[in-house]
Amino acid sequence: MGSMAPSVVFSPGELADALGALRASTPLVQVLTNTVVTNFTANVLLAAGASPAMADVPGEAGGFASVASAVLVNLGTPNSEQRAAMAEAVAAANAAGTGWVLDPVAVGSLRVRTDFALGLRDLTPTVIRGNASEIMVLAEAGSGGRGVEATDTVDSAAAAARALALRSGAVVAVSGEADLVTDGTRTVYVHGGSKMLTLVTGGGCALGAICAAFLPVVKDPLLAAVAAHAFYSAAAERAAAASSGPGSFAVHFLDALHALSPADLAATAVLS
Ligand SMILES: Nc1ncnc2c1ncn2[C@@H]1O[C@H](COP(=O)(O)OP(=O)(O)O)[C@@H](O)[C@H]1O
Ligand SMILES: Cc1ncsc1CCOP(=O)(O)O
Ligand SMILES: [Mg+2]
């Protein structure tokens, strides 16, 4: 896969320890996200063992970011108030040395959010997470997908993802059938998961929140993002096996995020 040979850089034990550390510390994740997925994202964080706080009001967002364990900035429905709050939160997170995740939902054809996303890209996000088309736009190597959906493959975005990581200093994660996570030098593919995640709104957006939840619990942001994707994929696989369609999948997914143990993660994760 990809133009450069990927390598396994993390052991099952490292993934298990990361999940154990998350559960032991209950990270406080500040979420500035879109109106479609807010409730689902909070439930995903709670089920995983984190503590969500949707603090996205100007005047509050900066103060909250200075005490949060990590911050998610998701551009799905970026009204002007929320954009002001995001600017505050990012400045405060950077001042406090707090990790933050940028999810540039639907960048490309939507000018306001694309311009805003390109500005955020250059404000040292710790992780940039998106689908292949979104990542290609932030790398200035594509014109975007179809609304919130990707029209490019993960492999076609691999070179752009590495270039974006080197340019921004962020770990870049590209979701798809197999997820690619890179810091520009090391590249890891996370296999597994379920296509059902694409039939529940927030399947990608809540993954950004889980990336944020892992940031404060491990030193290496690449390991944090890989552990987040492996954990998410393992839970999705378990949920898909128990469900009969998108509705029951969403319920089983929350149950699986809650039930999955560090040992389960170590036994299930497939990296390459
Ligand atoms: N074809 C697929 N098979 C299995 N899992 C998938 C597939 N496509 C996407 N996923 C998973 O769905 C989640 C959301 O990814 P994606 O749909 O690419 O994000 P977004 O919603 O931001 O476009 C990720 O966990 C990803 O691994
Ligand atoms: C449907 C929709 N419209 C604006 S944001 C949004 C949610 C997108 O969620 P995801 O990127 O996780 O599929
Ligand atoms: Mg998305």
From TrEMBL:
The lineage of its organism: Bacteria, Bacillati, Actinomycetota, Actinomycetes, Micrococcales. Pathway: Cofactor biosynthesis; thiamine diphosphate biosynthesis; 4-methyl-5-(2-phosphoethyl)-thiazole from 5-(2-hydroxyethyl)-4-methylthiazole: step 1/1. The gene is thiM. It catalyses: 5-(2-hydroxyethyl)-4-methylthiazole + ATP = 4-methyl-5-(2-phosphooxyethyl)-thiazole + ADP + H(+). This is Hydroxyethylthiazole kinase. Keywords: ATP-binding, Kinase, Magnesium, Metal-binding, Nucleotide-binding, Thiamine biosynthesis, Transferase. It is an enzyme of class 2 (transferase). Its EC number is 2.7.1.50. Substrate binds at residues 54, 202. It comes from Paeniglutamicibacter psychrophenolicus.
